[in-house]
Each structure stands twice: as structure tokens, then as C-alpha cells.
């Protein structure tokens, strides 16, 4: 018998399963995309069945590739797109509605009302979040408002609320476990991150019955046992995908920071056992919780990072593949400095403006595809600097540490060099770029006794390449000042 740990990574556009061996090496993986549903402008939904089906199919495919049976798998770790919201019937197992995805803006008006009525202070004080449609609670409220009798059924425990991890575990355990972990709970805007429990005050404010909420556990804990892969396998690790990446990047000490560049970009700074209340519109969240002890983080969430490159490809038809942007940026006219503000769905941290839309500044008759591509890649660096400036403001010091990066867009050396230049700090790209799955696997495998503790795991983190800043400070600050002006102008239109 071989010992493997299975990491299930249920993301926004695809589900992925990776099998790791006892030395945390990748043995096999499988990935499947699933349809996105856009029923109205600003609405994004997933079919709950697609989420579960693609998880089971990729898990089965990865096991087949490795020639593994259930007996070979010591534990399962689950990591997931966060905030995405499901409500289902306890008796029939049927969801009441499609999953409402984190990007969905349908509750923007309700969130504006919460702010106008002065509730944001309570929300932030308890949950660490801000009143934005991004989070789960107003999506759950929306579903309860739509379906007749739903709220009454929720109150007597006949309906269940869950983020994607809860839904998958409930399905994988065939209705035996209704659970989540502290990191996913922290993204619902219903969880008191200081008390470590659901907030009755917020539940009442939003009229989301507490009875429908799952039990909250540590990230390495017993989440139930699945038999759907041909034998008993315990689910021993759960974390939201950005938190799993923080773990996978071994950011275990206060001051360590990771930034993941996929569709969006999410930067998390470990702030240790004390939550830091942001005065710069960042989120306070739980990085991970082990042995009942939460470790907190400041988070900056950017909605458009790699998606700006997808827009060059699919929206404008300027490129056929993302990697072409490297040569285009290198060949762009140095005398031009276009600024692209990719506010395609508004701006996330630290601006939180759901209504503004994108803009390009500095166009001339000589501006072409290369200059636009360079501006697109640069926008990712500028947005990251916005987050780091906000973090610096919150932490009360201006020392710039090292930024550990991962995600698909980190394949772009040009972007990583510009990032180091514009933030004025080294950018470290690790050898294992599957940090999200790695984090989930470590949580589960550590709990199963297969993997070492955090200190031992940290020793295994290996650098592939460090990007050192080379841009003179004057140039960096002048460029960044232009970006700030461009953002201000975009938000004023
Ligand atoms: N070489 C590259 N240069 C620039 N962007 C890239 C490159 N390779 C991938 N990307 C971008 O990275 C994103 C994919 O990263 P990934 O981590 O798989 O995202 P997600 O998990 O959000 O689906 C895409 O938006 C793509 O445009
Ligand atoms: O699935 P991803 O990688 O796009 O991540 C989504 C985030 O968890 C949203 O908060």
C-alpha cells in the first residue's frame, strides 16, 4: 500500500484534484472546467451539481492515473473558491437555487442600504469585512427572500447554508456532516472572528437564521468520512483557497505575505494571533486556525489580475495566448506610458467602488497592441502596490518585506519584474506553484500524521526565482503617482 494525500481544489472556473505522496511531491492531477452562468448583468452562478460532479470526476481521474485505491489515501484536504453561497434542503438534498458566486453583484443595493443605515461599523467590528456584495451573507438572504417559506424552513433547521466546502463535504459524506472551517466562515459576513462563533447580531440584522449555519471547525480537523471513492477516506483539512495558498507558501510568521495571481489577485499578510482592524479598507480575516487558535491576516482583494490578459485575448483579440504578452511588453515603445485601470467590475480593495468601470489613459496615435499589453501587465503591479501601501498604513511601519507569489500569472517573468520594481521589494516565486492544493494537502496530511508540523513543512518551501527591484525610486514613485491619478479620474467618471 502507498500513502497519498488527496487535495481537492474547487475553484471559480475549474475543479482540480492533486494527489501528493508522503514527501509532498505531486504524483497525479486532473482538472475540469465547468459552465459559468450569467443570468443578468453582474450576476454569476454555478450549478451546484457541476461543482460536486467535477470534484468527484477529477478525484477519480487522479486516483486512476496514480493507480490508487481508497486504501492508499490517508486523508483528503479540501480548498475552495470562497464566499460562493449555497442553500439546500436537508431532507431532499436539493439546492433551492444555483450557487451564487463571489463575483456576483446582485445584492449591491442592499449593501448600499446597510451602509446608509449605519450598519457597516457593526459588521466590520464583528466580521472584519465591509458591507459589500462579495461576501456570502447577503447572497444567502437573497435566496431566502426569493423562495416561499424558505426563511421559516431555515428557522426550524430544514434548510442548510454552506460555502462550497460545506456543500462538497455534505455531498461526499452523504448528508452526515454539515461543517465548515474557520477561514471559510470568516468570509460569510456572519462570523464573529473575535469570538470564533456565528454572530447572532449579524444573523438577526440580515435575517439569516442561525439554525441553517454549519458547525465551524479548525482547518486541520475531522470533517467526516467519505465512502464515494470505493472505501473510507477521512476529510481532515479544509481552508478557503487564498488561505490554503497562505499555508502552502508557509507564511506562518507574522509579517509574512503571499499574493496569488489568478483571475483576480489576493494578498494576505499574516498578522499573528491579534486581528488588525484596517483603517485603509483592507479586510481582517482568519489566515488559518489550528488547535483552536486562529491566526489572523489582513487581506487585499483585487478582482481583475490575470483576467485583464484574458480580456486582451478574448475581448480585444490582440493575442492568442497569455504568454505572448511577455514579448509585447518587452517590445513596447518606451516613450509612451499608457495607464490601464482594469475596473471591469468596479474596483476591490482598497477602493471598494462597485460602480466605476475601466479606462485607458495616455493614448497617442502611436499607441498600439504592445503598449496596451504592457499597460495591462503593469496594472497588476500598480494594484498590488495599492494593497501594500494600505497594509503599510495599517501596520504602522514602512519596511517592505519579501512578497511570495503564486498563481497562473506568475509565469510571466516580465510582470514579476515589474511587480518587484513598482513595490520596491523582492518578489519570490517558489518551485511548487500549486500552493493552494499544497496547503490543503498539508493541513489534511499533518492531521493524519503523514506530514511534519508547520516548522518542518516550512523547511520544504523552495525558491525557484527571486525578482529584485531595479527601478530607481524616483521613477517608481512617479509612475505610481500617475496610476493614483488615473484611478481617481476613473472613479470620478
Ligand atoms: N504567461 C502569462 N502571462 C500573463 N498572464 C498569464 C500567463 N499565464 C497565465 N496567465 C493568466 O493567469 C490566469 C490563470 O491563472 P490561474 O491561477 O489558473 O487562475 P484561476 O485559478 O483564477 O482560474 C489567467 O487569467 C491568465 O490570463
Ligand atoms: O477560485 P479563485 O482562484 O478564482 O479564487 C476565488 C477567491 O477565493 C474569491 O475570494
Automatic annotation (TrEMBL):
| Residues holding ADP | 12, 16, 263, 306, 408
Question: Which annotated residues bind ATP?
Answer: 12-14, 263, 306, 310, 408
Q: What is its EC number?
A: 2.7.1.30
A cellular component term, taken from the record's GO annotations? cytosol
What positions does the domain Carbohydrate kinase FGGY C-terminal occupy?
Answer: 258-446
Q: Which GO terms describe its molecular function?
A: ATP binding; glycerol kinase activity
Keyword field: ATP-binding, Glycerol metabolism, Kinase, Nucleotide-binding, Transferase
- Provide the residue positions that the database annotates as binding glycerol: 82-83, 134, 241-242
Q: Which reaction does it catalyse?
A: glycerol + ATP = sn-glycerol 3-phosphate + ADP + H(+)
Q: List, for all copies, the residue spans of the domain called Carbohydrate kinase FGGY N-terminal.
A: 4-248
Enzyme's top EC category:
transferase
Q: Which GO terms describe its biological process?
A: glycerol catabolic process; glycerol-3-phosphate metabolic process
Under the heading InterPro entries, the entry gives: ATPase_NBD, Carb_kinase_FGGY, Carb_kinase_FGGY_CS, FGGY_C, FGGY_N, Glycerol_kin
Similarity comment: family membership: Belongs to the FGGY kinase family.
Q: Tell me, what does this protein do in biology? A: Key enzyme in the regulation of glycerol uptake and metabolism. Catalyzes the phosphorylation of glycerol to yield sn-glycerol 3-phosphate.
Q: Which NCBIfam families match?
A: glycerol_kin, PRK00047.1
The identity of this protein, by name, is: Glycerol kinase
Q: Which organism is it from?
A: Silicimonas algicola
